[in-house]
From TrEMBL:
Record-annotated membrane-spanning stretches: 233-253, 260-279, 285-302
Keyword set, alphabetical order: Membrane, Transmembrane, Transmembrane helix
One Pfam family linked to the record: DUF6594
Domain DUF6594: 4-297
InterPro entries per UniProt: DUF6594
Name by which UniProt lists this protein: DUF6594 domain-containing protein
Length: 308
């Protein structure tokens, strides 16, 4: 159990290492089998209803119109076929697991909240994807010694393998909707920066004294707030510099065609910067880029009119 003790101690101290399997294929298979079972029960119920309607027994024909007679009907008939009541008894527990529905009022509309397993799978799919750099560090934690011998054996060894990344999730959720610049900085910090100076000046992963490991963890930890702080700083610098630089560049260009080409280029650069330092909606990015281009055109027009 040393391997799981090691992982539990590290995950509890560092949320970004809390990476788990979703087992989506097992959930899908379970849903499909339950669905298939319900399909067969549905067909059995339709068959039972048809038999009652076509029966020569007047009591069985009456079952489609009289609920009291349906409740009083036997579970099986003399020919061994199940009754409607018996089939529904078999369907109810399946519906409880697969398709139980309850209703709640949201914005004055009735919304069906159904299927425990379907909702569970939906929530599994909505979990954030795994952070590749954190997965690499967790994979190292699954090894011991300078030669990185694996702690786990058999199928457990591949639980956090990079080939299983499609089925893994980072429960901290900090990697969802991160801007491109933050992801690039994360990659830079855990590779180039770590190789150059990071491993010497940053703290190593540590655990609670009561969970002290026999084989110490030799791994540097980089808190998640490093990248957002750098991105915020770069955003504050780029926000005034980009428009000012664009105005200066257009001021010294006299050829109208070159100016128009420069406006197109600067607008593209502005849009690319938006995508790099943030996660704007398409409409917001379009509106901001259009406004930036309009300001450049107004500046060029005024500059041309004054004969500068």
């Amino acid at each position: 159990m040393e391997a799981y003790d090691r992982l539990a101690a590290c995950m509890s101290n560092y949320d970004d290492l809390a990476i788990f399997r979703r087992f989506k294929v097992l959930h899908c298979r379970n849903l499909l089998l339950m669905e298939a079972e319900l399909i067969h029960k549905h067909d059995a119920l339709v068959t039972a209803i048809a038999r009652d309607r076509l029966s020569d027994d007047p009591k069985r024909k009456q079952l489609s119109f009289n609920f009291r007679d349906l409740l009083a009907s036997p579970d099986t008939y003399d020919d061994g076929s199940p009754s409607q009541k018996q089939v529904m008894k078999e369907i109810r527990p399946l519906l409880k697991d697969y398709g139980t529905s309850s209703h709640s009022v949201i914005d004055f509309f009735w919304v069906a909240v159904c299927s425990e397993f379907l909702i569970l799978y939906q929530r599994l799919c909505e979990l954030p994807p795994v952070n590749k750099s954190n997965l690499s560090r967790l994979w190292r934690l699954c090894s011991k010694g300078p030669e990185y011998r694996p702690f786990f054996e058999g199928g457990e060894y591949f639980t956090w393998h990079k080939g299983k990344a499609y089925d893994l999730t980072s429960l901290s959720g900090r990697t969802r909707n991160r801007d491109m610049l933050s992801r690039l900085l994360d990659k830079f910090i855990t590779t180039v920066y770590h190789w150059a100076v990071g491993h010497r000046i940053h703290e190593q992963i540590s655990v609670d004294a009561s969970w002290k490991l026999e084989d110490p963890v030799d791994m540097t930890h980089y808190p998640d707030h490093y990248s957002p702080a750098v991105v915020d700083g770069l955003t504050m610098i780029l926000a005034p510099i980009l428009p000012a630089t664009s105005i200066f560049a257009l001021y010294f260009i006299k050829d109208p065609l070159v100016r128009m080409g420069m406006i197109v280029l600067l607008s593209f650069l502005f849009s690319a910067t938006l995508a790099l330092v943030g996660v704007p909606r398409r409409l917001d990015a379009f509106a901001a880029t259009a406004a930036f281009g309009a300001i450049m055109v107004v500046f060029v027009s005024n500059n041309t009119d004054c004969g500068c």
